[in-house]
Design a protein that fits this description.
Rossmann fold, disordered N terminus, globular, alpha/beta
Length: 278
């Protein structure tokens, strides 16, 4: 769908006149459109996987974008994406399934990134990693640091030994643990436990690229304990000279994700991602 047609759809829906900047090409083959938090969303298949991109009403110069790696419709208003759209960011999602940031998932995400950049979006995205999406965001950034402007993790999984493995003091998930081993192609659990590609172990590429991190965590989270995941990342990242901010929610568990006022996260992403990568 062309930008002009998208504008007409929004006006017909009663959202008024919109100043569009024709700076990106989101006319994917066989795409459909709908409304997502007051903006036009383009839905399509990318290499056989469901995907979508949402256009802001007034795109910022350089077309910065946020990219939710998992659970894009969970606690959305609390997790920064609608506010970033209102500020002029595009927003994207590719469904790589319950694949725990495995090499196959990272390869699919890289191809999607390259296609969106080819169509005019900024070369470095703001990644949003909600819960197990933290594995996807950090694993992707470790493999492709030049594709990433900033990472926002929300109660993020940063070590699959913690979740779904349950090898610390969290609940774990035996079914997901078995699926994780299969997704990575590990021969057995011992191979998974010896793996050194978890986010907590693979921070050097992010630090060298100067990727800032912000994590929002509940200090009573017994599903993805912060002291086995986000807090380990923050401590190690700072030791590497990286920027890592942590917002703790006293007494909060794994849910709800996000913040009553996501402004601090939105501001952090805007500072580090607006204008990046062009």
């Amino acid at each position: 769908m062309t930008t002009r047609l998208a504008q007409c759809l929004l006006m017909c829906a009663g959202w008024g006149t919109i100043a569009w900047a024709a700076t990106s090409d989101l006319a994917f083959p066989d795409a459909k459109t709908d409304a997502w938090h007051g903006h036009v969303r383009h839905l399509f298949a990318f290499q056989g996987r469901p995907a979508w991109v949402v256009e802001p009403r007034t795109p910022l110069a350089g077309n910065p974008w946020s990219w939710c790696l998992m659970f894009p419709d969970a606690f959305t208003a609390r997790c920064a994406a609608p506010q970033l759209l209102d500020a002029g960011f595009h927003h994207a999602f590719l469904d790589v399934g319950n694949s725990f940031g495995s090499p196959t998932a990272v390869a699919a995400l890289a191809a999607f990134h390259d296609e969106l950049v080819r169509r005019g979006l900024a070369s470095r995205a703001a990644l949003i990693g909600i819960s197990r999406g933290g594995l996807y965001a950090h694993r992707y950034a470790a493999e492709h640091p030049d594709h990433v402007a900033v990472i926002y993790g929300d109660n993020p999984v940063c070590d699959f030994k913690s979740w779904p493995g349950g090898k610390g003091h969290g609940q774990g998930s035996p079914g997901d643990w078995a699926a994780c081993l299969e997704a990575y192609g590990f021969a057995d659990e011992a191979a998974a436990l010896a793996y050194r590609g978890n986010p907590i172990d693979a921070l050097e590429p992010l630090a060298r690229a100067g990727i800032p991190l912000i994590h929002v965590v509940g200090d009573a989270d017994d599903v993805v304990p912060a002291d086995e995941n986000a807090l380990v990342v923050a401590d190690r990242y700072r030791r590497l000279g990286g920027t890592a901010e942590v917002i703790q929610k006293p007494g909060c568990g794994h849910h709800p994700h996000g913040l009553d006022d996501p402004g601090p996260v939105v501001d952090f992403i805007q500072r580090h991602a607006a204008g990046a990568g062009r």
